[in-house]
């Protein structure tokens, strides 16, 4: 079921390079990032790119780029997450989903939710390996269908985004978060 491969493992041989070259999600900027920038950022320790292969491992179904992050939450959000409000900080350790793309031929089939669930499971299975993180955060394109997709998958808009919307501030993206602790209990 869609094996996960780390980018540098796949890009090491000609077959892997061919899989990468053949991936297209239909968005030129995302395709360009995967083909020309992802490995460099991966090797520089900036981003970790996960590739989701087809069951026969002959093509890339999706990919996700992850980076360490922190997320500033309001007092209300801290309370909603049942985090001790006496903490000296409002910055919560997070993993940021910096890029997420599904191959064009797999879009609109419900696989995006399945792959996103696999990303969450991957993070939960590695949560105690090296460092602590509580949230999966992302900057979703400010498009109602994109926002609805992430809401259906358990993401919530950060409080700052709600204030921005209320004041009609122009937003090209919307910061959203998912509480990974909900999956690990």
What does this structure look like?
Pfam families: Acetyltransf_7. Residues 5-181 form the N-acetyltransferase domain. It catalyses: glycyl-tRNA(Gly) + acetyl-CoA = N-acetylglycyl-tRNA(Gly) + CoA + H(+). A hairpin with a 6-residue loop joins strand 2 (48-53) and strand 3 (60-72). This protein has a single domain (4-183), classed as 3-Layer(aba) Sandwich (Aminopeptidase). The protein has helices spanning 7-10, 14-22, 28-43, 75-80, 111-125, 144-152, 159-166, 181-184; strands spanning 4-6, 48-53, 60-72, 91-102, 135-141, 156-157, 173-179. Strands 1-2-3-4-5-7-6 form a 7-stranded mixed beta sheet, sandwiched between helices. The chain has 185 residues and is of the alpha+beta class.
């Amino acid at each position: 079921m869609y094996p996960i491969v780390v980018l540098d493992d796949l890009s090491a041989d000609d077959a892997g390079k061919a899989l990468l070259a053949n991936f297209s999600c239909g968005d030129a900027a995302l395709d360009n990032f995967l083909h020309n920038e992802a490995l460099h950022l991966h090797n520089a320790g900036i981003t970790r790119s996960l590739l989701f292969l087809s069951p026969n491992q002959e093509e890339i179904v999706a990919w996700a780029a992850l980076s360490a992050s922190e997320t500033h939450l309001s007092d209300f959000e801290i309370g909603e997450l049942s985090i001790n409000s006496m903490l000296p900080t409002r910055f919560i350790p997070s993993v940021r989903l910096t890029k997420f793309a599904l191959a064009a031929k797999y879009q609109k089939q419900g696989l995006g939710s399945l792959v996103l669930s696999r990303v969450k499971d991957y993070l939960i299975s590695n949560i105690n390996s090296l460092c602590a993180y509580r949230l999966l955060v992302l900057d979703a394109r400010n498009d109602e269908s994109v926002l609805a997709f992430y809401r259906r998958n358990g993401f919530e808009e950060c409080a700052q985004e709600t204030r921005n919307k209320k004041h009609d501030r122009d937003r090209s993206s919307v910061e959203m978060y998912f509480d990974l602790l909900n999956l690990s209990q």
